[in-house]
Amino acid sequence: MADYDYLLANVSEDIADRLSLITREFPLALNYGCHTARLSHDLLELDQIDHIISTDGLEVLVEQAPDMRVIADEELFPFKNESFDLIVSALSLQLVNDLPGTLLQLRRGLKPDGAFLAAVLGGESLAELRHVFLLAEEELYGGASPRVAPFADVRDFGHLLQRAGFALPVTDRDLIRVRYPSAMQLMNELRAMGAGNVLSNRLKVSRSKALFERVNQLYQDLYADDDGRIYASFEIIYLMGWAPHPDQQKPLRPGSGQVNLRDVFEN
Fold this sequence. Notes:
The protein has a single domain (2-246), classed as Rossmann fold, CATH 3.40.50.150. Helices cover 32% and strands 24% of the residues. It is built from 8 helices and 7 strands, in the order αβαβαββαβααβααβ. A 7-stranded mixed beta sheet has the order 3-2-1-4-5-7-6, sandwiched between helices. α1 packs parallel to α2. The longest helix is centred in the N-terminal third of the chain and has 15 residues, at 6-20.
């Protein structure tokens, strides 16, 4: 599985870089939904973090984690409130069924003024694959079924952070384009990463070999570079928030600004 963890490697490095810019220590951190624990290894290289607990629902994944390990369902937070100085999650939270409830549990798991930083797949992920499946199924069967799980957009995640009670919530996005020899190779690697179709309302009957051959051809026709390799887009949305604390900065009241924008911009 590690051979296909290029997305997790990219995101883990980015999360570690972001944390390194925060001038404070996080003695005890939690990696929630650790996958292959790449992020846990990266974070332990930071001087800010003393210990990290890695959790996942699969024992085979938790076994790869350094330091402390717990087998746990991502939607059933097994820790006491106010246990952690930092909670991180890389490419796991988009798979939970009750994301608002999970975020609320994570916020409660933070000590006051503790930090939360996560990366999730956004709504523009695999847009090319969704498009060619739609075209191929319409062409061959006169209708299409869901083939890629729906993702929320960056504004949705910002609202969810606020709803869960995080202070100073911030979201931003990055778009990663990965190239593959073919659409079939892309789908094989998605399965190897554990990112196969998780929709419960997809068609239960198997589609013919002709569908995947047509998808492969359409992908090649529409989304191939000059060298013949196809590309797939992955939107990564980063979420950050803090457990409330009385000493945190407060946003200014609307209308309290001291600078008139007319004085800043030229006429």
